[in-house]
Amino acid sequence: MTPMTTGHSPRAEANRRHILDVALTELLRDPDASMDQIARAAGVVRRTVYGHFPSREALISTLVDGAVEAVAAADAAGREGIDDLAQAVAGSVLAVWKVADRYRILVALAQRSVTMEGIIERLAPVRQASTELLQRGLDEGVFVSPLPAPALAYVHEQMMFAVMEAVNHGLLDAQEAGRSAAVTVLTAAGVPASLATALVAKLSD
């Protein structure tokens, strides 16, 4: 007798992953893509999609979770092994933007269903790592700000969202956005603009 396929079987998980990959592509192409559209693009019936995700909001929420995981990995990789604190911040922003640029439409879309509060809650571990890095910089005089490290980390996070929105609205070229964000974040932390620009240009080469 053939074993019953469960929601945790390798096949079911592969189907779920496929649906998520296709859903991300479809939503980036058309933010208003319906569950029917996503099912057709994935080559499955609508019931299969709903079997994994009970609603469009649940699907988007799962995609946001994946985006946050990717951002956390990029943040860690961008500053790994870098002793210079300003360079570590710049490296983190540049690495995060490569991920954020892919998900920026999704983030805008998620704000309709997940809410910004939900996204901010998911980013808490990334913000904590940023806070610790900024605190070291403030303690050592590398960074200067009237804001305490936790507030400065929050401001940096909001800057990234603002840059995403600027690109989405055609106010900033996506190719330049990562470098612009990195320079802006560094200057907000008190790094002279000329130094921040030179540092980011060096890392971007």
Automatic annotation (TrEMBL):
PROSITE patterns: HTH_TETR_2. Pfam families: TetR_N (PF00440). Residues 13-71 form the HTH tetR-type domain. InterPro entries: Homeodomain-like_sf, HTH-type_TetR-like_transc_reg, HTH_TetR. Residues 34-53 bind DNA. Keywords: DNA-binding. The keyword DNA-binding applies. Signal peptide: none annotated. This is TetR/AcrR family transcriptional regulator.
